[in-house]
Amino acid sequence: MPQFTSPPKVLDYNIQVWEVVRQIPVGKVSSYGRIAKMIAAPSVEKEKSYNAFGARWVGGAMAKSPDDVPWWRVVNAQGKISARPNALRQRELLEAEGVIFNERERIDFKIYLWV
After folding, report:
1. Which end of the chain is less packed: N or C, by CB atoms within 10 Å?
2. Model confidence at 1, in pLDDT bands (50, 70, 90)?
3. Residue 25 lies in a domain
4. How many domains does the chain have?
């Protein structure tokens, strides 16, 4: 399986990600992988690689998101905030929207998952 670690057209891909993330309503979350699945692979030949790397690409887009993109509503597949410098701020923003974390620091996707 050929591997690639960044989209062929990074800005074009990021714009698609940001458009999806802007649709996540207040008090809801999605995961990097689910968002990646909402965006088509750059080509049919690269679909398997995209399935492996898409979530990382979404993470890269979130790291570069404009101010109007609610980046804090994107969490990992376990319903947790990924470790990074702004993780505490992400939790604060989610809790301010009514999202509750359980004793294992996870968000219940049955309640808060968007789409």
Report:
1. N
2. very low
3. yes
4. 1
